[in-house]
Amino acid sequence: MEYKIITTIEDFTALKTDWQRMENQSHDVTIFSTFDYCYTWWEVYQHKPELKLWIIIVLHNNQIAGIAPFIIERRNYRLGLKIDVLRFIADGDYHDILINIDLNINPDSIFKDIFSIIEENGSSWDYLHLSHINYKSPFSNFLFKSKYNKHFTYLIESPYINLSLYDSFDSFSKINAPSKAKQYVSRLRNKINYELELNSTDIELFSQIHKKERDFLQNKGNLYRHSLYEDKNKVAFINELASLNKITSFSLISKEDNKLLIYNWGFIKDNIYYSVNTAFDPSYSEFSLGRVMYYEMLKLAKDKNLFSVMDTGTGRYPWKFEWTSDFNILYQIQIKKPRSFIHKSILNIKAIFFNK
Description:
The chain is 37% helix and 28% strand. By secondary structure, it is of the alpha+beta class. The protein has 2 domains: 2-126 and 337-354, Aminopeptidase, CATH 3.40.630; 160-327, Gcn5-related N-acetyltransferase (GNAT) (Aminopeptidase), CATH 3.40.630. The strands form 2 sheets. It has an 11-stranded mixed beta sheet, sandwiched between helices. The chain has a 4-stranded antiparallel beta sheet with strand order 1-3-4-7, sandwiched between helices. The longest helix is centred in the middle third of the chain and has 17 residues, at 203-219. The radius of gyration is 23 Å and the shape is globular.
């Protein structure tokens, strides 16, 4: 077994051609595991001292057979103890390991090699936490039947809407749309002359709307509601993706005063729209804007063939299931090294009591 562990951005950059070829070989690889997404994330976050690049490259006859896009993150644990967590790079609704299908190697053998490499380098990490793994992926299949099965557990659902099953939007909406969705659309049109704009992406404006929605929901008692735009690194990452034209956005705009009513942005890959973020202006909270937006988005997507499937993002919110009964199940694998925790705890206690 030959392998490399990539720890510098220069070596990361050199992976671009192979990585992009592999990401295009399989529909199992979502936008969140593509080179551009992961590389852009690392460009933004590489300055953080608690993060270390740790991409495993499995080689076969000097060719890349597999890429495991990992980082090691140092986190606070207990009593001042810090632990090193091995996890997927970037943040997203799905994560995966890339396999070079052209080499005709059984993916299971590559996954097995990756875990052997992880174990061989056990001194580099204390806790393995790989999350958001689609239950239908080859990686999941390997974990289900491997010795790691007991560590591989349910995490969350991600509902999706499959438009490809229907000849038209009307046939889809008659069966799947909430009973009053069309009524909500008509009510809003009677009050506001609006239009749906595609790719009028304005991250700063989206940020303002999202924070207004956060404040509105907090005032209604949802004290745990936060905004991703509060984090400057996340904003920088989103802006970088927007500058690369990776983001697809939908905006309902009032034609009279050009006000943004609601937006939804995400990514399209392999005819799937991955919805990442949405928010509405609380000034229009009476109009069920979320349902109107879904109705208009899905209608446009079907009419213009923008995408066949809309992945609504992780989370089992009731309003998502108003439109579909389909969902992906995401799993996670968690492995803690007890000896590592005990050793670090002892060193930490010694430091507290004897290094004064």
